Amino acid sequence: PIVYLNGQFLPLDQAFVPVLDRGFVFGDGIYEVVPVYSRLAFRIEEHLHRLQHSLDGIRLDNPFSREQWIELIEELIARNDGEDQYLYLQLTRGVAKRDHAFPKEVTPTVFMMSSLLVHPPQALVETGVAAVSVVDNRWDRCDIKAISLLPNVLLRQTAVDHQAAEAVMFRDGILTEGSASNIFFVENGVIMAPPKDNHMLPGITYDLVLELADAHGMPYEIGKYDQERVRRADELWMTSSTREVLPITQLDGQPINNGKPGPLFKKMYALYQDYKAHVMRR
Ligand code: PMP
């Protein structure tokens, strides 16, 4: 694969960052993940908007205009294999003598890479995935897509240790999100979702799901929901740019409802696939 690093396109195995990069030393940076379908970056305006929100959140100036980002992203896609890819974009506060406070002169490190997008296997869509519930022990700026992901890494490993695909987080007993996804549940025909506040990442897929619900007359409600309500849900879903919408059919070893993907999931999944196909045809 060909990657972009600080003004250059080069092979992945030739891309290096100095050890004093603040991303390496402090986790002082932010990132984005953008799916590419048929060589078109999906929802790119929304991703660039969230990138700006993350940069503002860590007080790092955006080195590029929207147009420059689009140009670089198009070149990265063109230089890599695969009709469907996913892009990883990362910016850090650059290289400086190790000191917690910001350096006086900042030259951000900008890194972008493309990987082949592996679509969620149909089997997962048809049977659903298992998840475990965990305590959300992260900081309170989860709206920033920060590269310092240690809590998410540890919680996801807890899920893997239990043969589960995702960790569903609860802060003070209230549903927030997954370790790398947003979480929805269904109660009496209504899609229920946590609010986009500082306790979760504002997912691009989260917004799209609610947009599709709006457009197709599927009722939804945003609120704070406790663990017992989630366990008793008729359906439980997870969403992310790379996993799209997937049903969670087991939580902590117990089935959600009858343990099968529900009717609203099937409807939303179909709407999502239609939307993708429609956008890519334009
Ligand atoms: N929450 C967290 C913590 C995530 O890492 C992700 C994946 N980027 C999401 C939610 C889902 O966001 P998106 O739909 O933009 O991929």
From TrEMBL:
Its EC number is 2.6.1.21. It comes from the Bacteria. One of its GO terms (biological process) is carboxylic acid biosynthetic process. GO terms for molecular function: D-alanine-2-oxoglutarate aminotransferase activity. One of its GO terms (cellular component) is cytosol. Keywords: Aminotransferase, Pyridoxal phosphate, Transferase. Signal peptide: none annotated. Its cofactor is pyridoxal 5'-phosphate. Belongs to the class-IV pyridoxal-phosphate-dependent aminotransferase family. This is D-alanine transaminase.
